[in-house]
Amino acid sequence: MRKKIYIMVSIIVLFSISFGESPDELLERAKAGDKEAQYEIGFYYYEKNQHEKAYKWFKKSALQDVEKSQNMLGKLYYYGKGVPEDYKKAAYWFEKSADWGNAESQLYTGHIYYNGMGVTKNIYKAFKYFREAAYNGEGEAQGKVGLMYLHGIGVEKNKEEARYWFKQCLENTNTSKTMKINIKELWNKYNLGSY
User: Fold this and answer.
1) Where is the signal peptide (predicted)?
2) What is the CATH number of the domain that holds 38?
3) For residue 165, is it within any domain?
4) Which pLDDT tens digit goes with each residue over 147-178?
5) Containing domain of residue 82, as a range?
6) Are 58 and 76 in contact (CB under 8 A)?
7) 58-94: per-residue pLDDT in tens?
8) Contact at 8 Å (CB) between 99 and 62?
9) Could you tell me if residue 35 is inside a domain?
């Protein structure tokens, strides 16, 4: 997902420059309050590992309801980059972004509620956010939804639903190899049929 965002931002920056806008002009737009320019500048600093500067610009943009900036603020707080690690603040920003439909934030929000990180543990909310991320094509979330159906965590046990979501996970090109190996082992262990 990070790679997709990086490519998207690179295209936007190149598009901006190709139409006569220099990086300095982009910065000026950000300083003038342009929320998309603020996100672009924030992402530029994030990629350069200048997380304090990235935080400043993401925060300005996030306060103007730019979901991708809200997602990035969540990541900064979650991993303690440029700001002290703070799961409660990470949860706040991830959930705001998740509610806009950001699949990566939905996945993080699911993890946060599943594990009770900065919030009261709530497997039902975890399932809700994992399922939303799964429907939005997030491979790891598809695997998590399958696991929750398989074991009846936050949802009624349903082997057919587990099989469906495991298959989605295995066919998703964005699913990690580790997740695929784990899902294949569960597929065989619980005799979910031929794949």
Assistant:
1) none
2) 1.25.40.10
3) no
4) 999 999 999 999 999 999 999 999 999 999 99
5) 2-106
6) yes
7) 999 999 999 999 999 999 999 999 999 999 999 999 9
8) no
9) yes
